[in-house]
# Entry
Amino acid sequence: MRLLVTGGAGFIGTNFVLRTAATRPDWQLTVLDALTYAGNRENLASVAGRVDFVHGSVADADVVDRLVASCDAVVHFAAESHNDNSLDDPWPFLESNVIGTYRLLEAVRRHAKRLHHISTDEVYGDLELDDPARFTEDTPLNPSSPYSASKASADLLVRAWVRSFGVNATLSNCSNNYGPYQHVEKFIPRQITNILTGVKPKLYGQGRNVRDWIHVDDHNDAVLAILERGRSGETYLIGADGELDNRAIVALLLELMGKAGDWFELVSDRPGHDLRYAIDSSKLRAETGWTPRYQDIRAGLTQTISWYRDHEDWWAGAKARTEQTYRRLGR
Ligand code: NAD
Ligand code: DAU
# Structure
């Protein structure tokens, strides 16, 4: 297998590349990454001899065509990924997430290669807090933010290229990931690094929004299962039954890090803030046999806290820049 991984220097892509290099010793791996503020080539230093790294954008038709021509399959993680940034400046989300996916689709179509497109549960919009429903593969797309609208657009392009041009592609829509190498702009690493630096965790609004948490290794195992056993043209929802509201996550972090349970502050809410996400992953489990391994969130968070404690050099610079942006946004 010659696998092209886009966005392989970001949070989920890094964990995917490290895991795949370790578990699939005969696969050839190439990473295409634009090294935006969210990408870090050093993440892949331990596998530098195993992985070809190409610095470039998925929106660049020439580089994409060249790399797709010489691989067997593509796993497409590359994207602008943060909702708050998309509310501040939507254009990079259109360029990377929509145009970038279009460039890849045209290349896999031209060269008859397999594509696995990584997407998000946010394309389905949100659920009420007291609604027993969960998202399934049949839930209509109803995105709320420029980020989720750009991901829904990309999903629709993939589905259209499958139907109209017979492109060999699968899609997956996953819930909120946590684990090592996640940028400190995101909720869990922001609060861990706040606590480590003596700053109170910050909850948007009343902190009652619910996310369906999954460890990044469980997400990536599911991606490998779909790549190896998924049916072409199909969408698979990935989730680990990890629904918790944001207050509950902060309470766990405070307890695990030895702070009082009321040591947090409420800050101004995100405009259009989705209330709740929840995934029904029965189809993925039935068709591929995948099950999550990290079902104990306390254990997963304990591991994640240790990683951030041990890697201050990795996050300190990004933390200062990120908090400057949050101060400007009033959050
Ligand atoms: P991230 O922001 O940590 O990493 C994104 C990576 O993509 C970075 O390395 C960045 O440099 C690269 N990139 C951005 N634009 C690019 C471009 N034009 N060309 C090439 N590389 C580019 O994001 P993440 O959290 O690792 O998310 C990866 C994928 O998973 C995204 O498609 C995201 O929508 C999806 N996803 C994320 C989550 C989550 O909880 N983080 C959940 C479900 C789905
Ligand atoms: O559901 C999948 C999505 O999960 C992915 O598609 C996105 O790429 C990923 O960023 C994530 O989106 P969210 O917007 O849910 O994640 P974020 O970490 O930004 O926020 C999680 C929740 O925490 C959300 O309800 C907003 C809230 N929040 C966030 C921050 C940064 C806070 O209360 N305080 C904070 O400081």
Q: What stands out?
A: The mean pLDDT is 98.
